[in-house]
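Issue 218. Parser rejects a valid record. Input:
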Amino acid sequence: MPRIWPFRHIGLKVLSVALALLLWLVVSGEETVERGLRVPLELQQVPAGLEQTGEAPATVDVRVRGASGALSRVATGDVVAVLDLHSASAGRRLFPLTPDQVRAPFGVEVLQVMPSAIAMVFETSASRQVPIVPAVDGKPAPGYVVGSMTADPPSAEVIGPEGAVKRATEVLAEPVSVAGARDRVQDTVILGVLDPSLRLKTIRSARVTVQILPAPLERTLRSRPVHLRGMAATLDAEAVPATVAVSLRGSREALGRIAEDEVEAYVDLAGLGAGQYSLTVHVEGARDAGVTHIDPPSVQVRMTSAKR
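Output the parser choked on:
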């Protein structure tokens, strides 16, 4: 049998005892304090087939006690209240919340939790297909209007509490920009639902097609004088014919807002010298209407030196 030497490594043994004694003196010398903390509430084990309605509190208040040094080292997330919902069923339920349901670091004692109970409402989970409703942003080019809008796929499956699913009437689509469009617009957009208790089961985007059509009404302004712009001060000019007819297309409201003298036909003479030219007629001032036709589309302009 080997012989035991109690004084073997005596230096290390004395050092260990001294360190333990020092640690005990430090800990026992710390003041015991209480502190209030706001900590996150973690929900666990929600039964399958149930949906929570309304909002459960994200945090709760707890009262803790411990050495001042230990409490000063407590960081966000070190203390967490845990609510086990495995026994939940449809309807309004009340779940007790006790200090035993709070996770805390060693040396931190949980004295109280406020509130002491959490009220929650559960409904049976349900799902159904709901139509996707496309939307547009901006206005087409003057003289054009937005026609039919379709989504591919035309519907998406929403899931959530049974009551909210029954009330759902549409799945929203991110607006498609049609600003300045003169032809069909297609875009892949993100889908979503307004009710925060609902969510999309699988589909997250759809292909939206927006038809852009010529506006349904047309208005013709006759005998609009052709203005001569940009002519040099040393020249005279004459347009033949001196007037044109301007046809506008747009909605009834847009055409009704346009006064005849707001629409100006003109030719640009900038940089031209004496001579005879065939120049294209331009129109401005039509605002929300589109110019579909100018009759005639060009005029003959004879430019001569100005008489002094």
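Fixed in the parser; the record now loads. The first helix runs from residue 10 to 29.
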